[in-house]
Amino acid sequence: MRADPLLFSAGTWLGIAGAALLLITLLAFVLRWGIRFRLVGVTSFTVLLSLSCLAFAVSYAPRLLVEGAVSVPVVFDNGADLVIAAAPDDLPEAAFRPSVEQVALNLRGSGRRSDGGLVHVRLRRVEPVAAGTDRPVILAAADRDLASGSVTVLP
After folding, report:
1. Is 91 exposed, middle or buried (0-12, 13-18, 19+ CB in 10 A)?
2. Three-state SS for 24?
3. 24-82 per-position pLDDT tens digit
4. Cα(19)–Cα(44) distance, rounded to whole angstroms?
5. For 34, phi and psi rounded to 5 degrees?
6. What is the pTM of this model?
7. Distance between CA atoms of 78 and 84, rounded to whole angstroms?
8. What is the side-by-side order of every strand in the sheet holding 151-154?
9. Span 136-150, mean pLDDT?
10. Do residues 102 and 95 touch, judged by C-beta distance below 8 A?
11. Quick one: which of 140, 141, 143, 142 has its CA closest to 94?
């Protein structure tokens, strides 16, 4: 099940529970029950939980999948214009371009300090050169324009 219908349903039910608790809390204050202040805390927490579920359901965006891509971990992100993902050793060459495109498509633009809104995404592998010496090798690269949302996979 997708997350947003589940969160909408949970938020709705928590809202109903919050409304019921609000009525009980008001009744507790009128009748001067001893647990009335505890009910204030429970009610406010339930309403806050309901609003949080509804807000997350509205803002949730699922990850985009590209055919032929393999999920690769991001190992470096400077928060501005460079993102580097690590390719596993057994990644086939046919999956290089789709994998870097998938990483680029799933970048979120909010909070990035990129000049011009362009983010460079690279897929790399670390290969040994000599004993104790390694060299990073760029397998594929892509540019993501945050303003338009377009991705250009570089040759």
Report:
1. middle
2. helix
3. 999 999 999 999 999 999 999 999 999 999 998 888 878 889 999 999 999 999 888 89
4. 10
5. -75, -20
6. 0.69
7. 9
8. 74-77, 82-86, 118-130, 133-145, 151-154
9. 90
10. no
11. 140
